[in-house]
Amino acid sequence: MTRTRTILGLAAASAAVVALAACSSGDSGSGSGSTDAAGDDYGLVQAGTLTVATEGTYRPFSFHEDGSGDLVGYDVEVAEAVAEKLGLEVQFQETQWDAIFAGLDAGRFDVIANQVSITPEREEQYLFSEPYTVSRGVVVVNEGDTSISSFDDLEGKTTAQSLTSNWYELATESGANVEAVEGWAQAVSLLQQGRVDATINDQLTFLDYLNTTPDAAIEVAAETDETSESAFALTQDKEALVEAIDEALAELREEGVLAELGEKYFGADVSE
Known about the structure:
Blueprint: H1 10-26, H2 36-42, E1 49-54, E2 63-64, E3 71-72, H3 74-85, E4 89-94, H4 97-105, E5 111-117, H5 120-123, E6 127-128, E7 133-142, E8 158-161, H6 166-173, E9 177-180, H7 184-192, E10 199-202, H8 203-212, E11 218-234, H9 239-254, H10 257-266
Parallel strand pairs: 1-4, 1-5, 8-9
Antiparallel strand pairs: 2-3, 5-11, 6-11, 7-10, 7-11
Helix pairs in contact: 1-2, 1-9, 3-9, 3-10
């Protein structure tokens, strides 16, 4: 589903940031450098702090770095960059996916940054920022295989897919025979062994694999027209905060920061 959203008014977002900056500089008695007005402006859980829910176990989006144990990842660094633009501290609350929306509803955090896909069903309940991740479905083949260049070419071919994924449905709709696998790792292994002709998966999964396994001799043969977009998710009373986040994301995109973070974690700009 290709989806567009009009960027909310620059003046409104700028006014919100200016108001926050005034609060941050006006109360020298506050340890965080901000007053309760900052919380009033955006309805923050804690004035002067952007409280962000993320899993912390979802590589490469939100995970703990080997060695240091620091919380890192694409979503983590995007959230940090947005908070910096807004003049806010950032605090992450690691939460299991199954409980993450319940925690948002309960007011435990301000936003979710965990590759939350924008769907019509979720838009009925939540507000979303502008997307900071855009992805497509891709057909992955062994390097140099010219027998597949479109989804139509999957007719009669064998693909490796998880039977519970949307990609399984797409493969069968394209006329492919499906070899059942548990996930990407098994699928790509069967592909490289020549036991299947292709596998369909998310573009981000493919890019992450190439970024960590640059010598892998696989390539994208085709991609879907429809995109999947992920964004910050917020409760419906956070309109002012959404406006400010959208303005921050627009600046980060213009400055090339989102592209740099995409290159760091995926070897490509995945923000648009």
